[in-house]
């Protein structure tokens, strides 16, 4: 059985992961509206990945005999000043998620809950990849600046993203 403080923290993180999915889905709408189909495609897969992140914790809580009570998911932003600004927001958000996960891992360790710590280590590794992926795209966007031809090529590249292998996402 999970301790109450860990159950509360995990429940909060489920909400954060759903919010992550919501933000990226909002970015799908933004990119589609700006005819950047590759960016929209990349973000759609990202939103799905975040949904899987939420479910992975959700299922874990159930497996530990906990009761998940879902909370309201706040509305995401609607617009960004540019594709670069959207990816900057995505990177800032991922950094925030990394901080959350680190705190959860710290809590699991201090409570000597090895199973929860083990789960959080999966997220710790995942966050490294999440930040690196967004940072890579952001670097390319910065490289081309406001150049339309450069943005066209990046957008075409992002359209080739395939569903990530289920690296543990339940
Ligand atoms: Fe679930 Fe992108 O963090």
Query: What's the CATH superfamily, by name?
Result: Ferritin, core subunit, four-helix bundle
Uncertain regions: pLDDT < 50 for 5+ in a row?
Answer: 165-170
Query: What gross morphology would you assign?
Result: elongated
Measured on Cα atoms, how large is the radius of gyration? Answer: 17 Å
Could you report the average pLDDT, rounded to the nearest whole number?
A: 95
Note the run of SSEs as H and E. Answer: HHHHH
Listed once per kind, the bound small molecules are: MU-OXO-diiron
Task: State the separation between the terminal residues, measured CA to CA.
Answer: 20 Å
Structural class: mainly alpha
Tally of DSSP helical segments: 5
Please give the domain count.
Answer: 1
Q: Helix fraction?
A: over 70%
Number of strands: 0
- Supply the CATH class: Mainly Alpha
Residues in β-strands, percent = under 5%
**From the coordinates shown, what is the CATH architecture?**
Up-down Bundle
């Amino acid at each position: 059985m999970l301790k109450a403080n860990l159950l509360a923290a995990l429940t909060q993180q489920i909400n954060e992961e759903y919010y992550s999915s919501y933000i990226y889905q909002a970015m799908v709408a933004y990119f589609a509206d700006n005819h950047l189909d590759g960016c929209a495609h990349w973000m759609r897969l990202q939103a799905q990945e975040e949904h899987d992140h939420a479910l992975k914790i959700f299922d874990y809580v159930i497996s530990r005999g906990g009761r998940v009570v879902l909370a309201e998911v706040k509305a995401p932003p609607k617009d960004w000043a540019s594709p670069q600004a959207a990816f900057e927001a995505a990177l800032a958000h991922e950094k925030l998620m990394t901080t959350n996960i680190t705190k959860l891992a710290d809590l699991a360790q201090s409570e000597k809950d090895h199973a929860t710590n083990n789960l959080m280590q999966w997220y710790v590794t995942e966050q490294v990849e999440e930040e690196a992926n967004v940072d890579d795209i952001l670097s390319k966007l910065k490289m081309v600046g406001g150049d339309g031809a450069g943005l066209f090529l990046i957008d075409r590249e992002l359209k080739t993203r395939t569903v990530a292998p289920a690296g543990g996402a339940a």
